[in-house]
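Can't attach files on this board, so I'm pasting raw text. These are the components:
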Amino acid sequence: MKRREFVKGVSALSLGASVLPLMKAIPAQAAGQDTAVVVFGGTINSLDIHRSGTNRDSYQVAINCYDRLVTFGTKTLEDGSLSYDYSDVQPELAESWHLSDDGTVMTFQLRKDATFWDGKPVTAHDVKWSFDRAVSLGGFPTVQMKAGRFTSPEQFEAVDDKTFRITLPFASKLSLPDLATPIPIVINATVARAHATDQDPWATEYLHRNPAGSGAFQITRWDPGQQLVYTRNEDWASGPQPGFSRVIVREIPAQSTRRALIERGNVSVSQNIPNKDARELASKPGVKVVSTPIENCIYSLCTNLNFEPFQDKRVRQAIAWAIPYQSIFEQAAYQQGVPMWGGSSSVDNIAWPQRSPYDYNLEKARELLGQTDYKDGFEVPLSFSLSQADWAEPAALLVQQGLGKIGIKATLEKIPGANWRTIALVEKKLPLHMENFGGWLNTPDYYFFWAYIKGNLFNSYNYDNPEMARLVEQTLDMPMDDPRYAPNVTRMIELAFDDIPRIPLWQPTLNVALNADVQGYEYWFHRQMDVRPLKPA
Amino acid sequence: MSLALKSRRVGMRLLQAIPTVFGILVVCFLLTRALPGDPAAYFAGQMADQESIEAVRKNLGLDQPLPVQFVDYVGDLAQGDLGTAISTGQTVSAELATRLPASLELTLGALLLAFLIAVPLGVMAATRPNTWIDHLCRFLVTAGVSLPIFFTGLALMYVFYYLLGWAPAPMGRLDIFYLPPESVTGFYTIDALIAGDWEVFRAALAQMALPLVTLALFVLAPIARMTRAAMLQTLGSDYVRTARAAGLSGCRVLITYAFRNALLPVVTTLGMVFSFLLGANVLVEKVFAWPGIGSFAVEALVVSDYAAVQGFVLCMALLFVGLNLLIDVVYTLIDPRVGEEA
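---
Top answer:
Structure tokens for the assembled complex are below.
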């Protein structure tokens, strides 16, 4: 698009061409009827979620530009804000679907009127090509597909142009929701194939820069390191028309600058703001802050069972009793989030996350530690990632103080973000560390699968309990209304709290600041900005 | 000195730069490998298992022994291929091509602004010691040195954008509703002028104003100080006294005899200050969301993005080799004696 046309387009739609010279003064309010400006601190490094090396900030392109077969519905939370609804799977590209009686064959009927941006109808062959790609490219997409029990191209079949079939090795409650995650997007296979080469059969180089989808927004500009411009696809068939015809996503690295921009009303949305700002901005006029507890996510202190003192369960429990939870919640979380301590001593429901039975009680801590070989304490490094220092550093300092009171000397160890994954999650060699994990699929057993089974990525503390392993294996694919489901999950939670390799501190929130002229913001598990439901107030 | 001799000298200087650049290549290659962190694990993504990490490692060529990696790297380099910066998803050469002009526009602009203010200020302070202008010079120098650059940046932004609303939103090189001018030099202001688009020129200049002032304040001090000191020295020298005694006009003495000789140390300072500025840029680029090379390099370092870091260092090395060369040439122009005895 030519610059002039772009500028003219914006002005004609918002203010009229006469005020062109005053463009620099257009704040979000004036442009607001038609263009929304979103700022965030990350950087978008690819427009293709399947490509290896694509970062989390880039997932938003998959959400806004591509369709999936199904999506999740919307629910209103207690505070009036909107959230996606895990329990309500809704049609997106598929207008209907059917599950065979044994639950292993899923048949999807695609919308008749759905077309790609180039006008080509979306067919089951495109879906098949896209799914084949997701399970074949390796890396994150393949792992996420596996969670839904999709592992090989043989499982996918285009029955006819509008009928798509998936055959599962066994029925799983995770399959359908997994299709609503940002990974199983439907790509225009004709366009992609035209750009595939022998070295690059899945056209990763082309799709990296040129999305080819059927989604609600197209990308008209990508200035890497600066901005992304979404333009509404007026022919979008798979959902309600988005409220803005253009959304500009700008990368603003400095947090203080982002805050100034939203306070001055120059931007519509500031995504993922720190807790401190969330608390302070909430009282400013003209700015609305939405803080949604991140589902399935817990900020925790983890005790590595490969480290000798932590092999003794009583040592781990003593630590859980020696943490000044309330001060941490006040000083590290600025009271944004949900406390995860001080619950009842027995597990009576299967909500996850839920409060652990531990609280700040030095007497109990000393008593437990006194029963072990380490009654005189020991020394241990307490590690956290520098890229999570905003919450982990103040929390670690307070944990250090608490442990000091029962004779455990913790020395703080800050680890650069690039290093963190390798040391903490892959090599799993940090004795005591601050960690967070939130699963995309919102069931407790899915969380326990990733974080409490030996060898799995987020079990950074080498927890290994045969009973937990058996329970998770039994439960992971079981429907939630199975009579064994609730008792199994209850037992998992009991084990997690009794063995306490991972000590929950609090459930964090995703904070988003909105200009008063924008509404419709919806929280999603992937924590990226879904710009489709945004609309002018 | 004849033109042929001059160009031969310049050619020699260029040749001398080659081992320097090669040395930098080797050191930088080894240093990036010594960075903590496993780029394969980082770039494999959040849910990657061991298998996909290995696939990424293979993909990046990091499974090869170091000498093989180095030969590959130099081989690619010889073909002008700097590799792909995984942290931003672009080729390193594309990143440098778009980001270097952004940084240079800011750096050179600030240098020019600082030079235009600091040199006259220094000269005046030297010619009128202990008057108000000398005190003003001293004050600016002290302020410039003692204010940390991010503080100046944030303070200026707070006052002129947040409180007064005079400056445009600090969102990079151009306001949201303008598109960059057709790229010729990569400098938005100059490209806008070439395109004859005053509107975009004004917008680009407005976006630049605060970061420019921030950086200029930072380098004003050394330039003004050096000018003042050098002027004081030349003004007190024998040849100036002789010139005065010969009855030459004050203005002529000041410019032809004193200032011209004082310029040498000032040019040296400019060269040094330029390198400080490129470093200081990093902070300013962060605060003002300026898509420059400094913030790119820092992000790349944080995630151990080898290709990006190497490309950045190579680019900087070339830039400084070029800068030193340029300073040498300017020296010869100012003072014909330079290099004669070499």
